[in-house]
Amino acid sequence: VLSVESNMGELCTSFSLYSRKAARLRDANDEVANILASISEGEVINKSMKIGLNDVAKKLNLLGDFRDQGVQLLDKRVVEVFAGYEGICRKAKDEIKVIFSARDKELNRQRQLDRVRERTPHNRHQITKAETELIKAKSEVSRNQKALEEQIDLFEKKKLKDIKSALLDFIKIELALHAKAVELYTQAYNNLSDIDEDQDLEDFQNVRGNFDLELRTVMASDLARLDTVKRTSFRSSSFQSIANLFST
């Protein structure tokens, strides 16, 4: 029982850690998906990049949902099974204590009978009474021992079944998750492969060309206005100088 308690405790601790790490991976996956979705939403020039990133973000979100289901199943079908052995082993140890207590009682009755026979060998009443108590104690030990043997068999059967079942569930959960991951990652790979870098670059250059044209137009307009301002300022200054000559 102590060995089973120790082994199950270690399995519970290990799978609890595994589940927590799987949960952190799920959260990191969701964070990447959110960032890609945000970049895609803000992209206004590179159309194929926008579509590709958005599709990949959706695939990662789906994968995140499967990871979340996997974490929940791990906790329910694996961690909880091993965690339950703390109480199961405690109960088994209590049952063992009962049989040892009955055994101690039997030994005490045997010693009492031996003392009675030694001290009062002719006191048949006391001897018979002690023998009766010993028989009862032996009967109790026999019953408890038989019940304990049955409990031990059930305990061992349950242990074997639970370990097998929990580990099979763990493998099935991981297989299902990895199979879905391969499917979604394959689709995401294809989505990224469909990004047309040349077309996106051409779109960028077209936008940049239009921007440059608008910029040159604006700059030319600003220069023209500046030149007009300078001429107007010069004329005003010249007229003022002539007016000053006539006034003198």
From TrEMBL:
GO terms for cellular component: ciliary basal body; ciliary transition zone. Pfam families: FAM92. GO terms for biological process: cilium assembly. Gene3D superfamilies: Arfaptin homology (AH) domain/BAR domain. SUPFAM superfamilies: BAR/IMD domain-like. InterPro entries: AH/BAR_dom_sf, CBAR/FAM92. PANTHER family: CBY1-INTERACTING BAR DOMAIN-CONTAINING PROTEIN HOMOLOG (PTHR21223:SF2). This is BAR domain-containing protein. It comes from Graphocephala atropunctata.
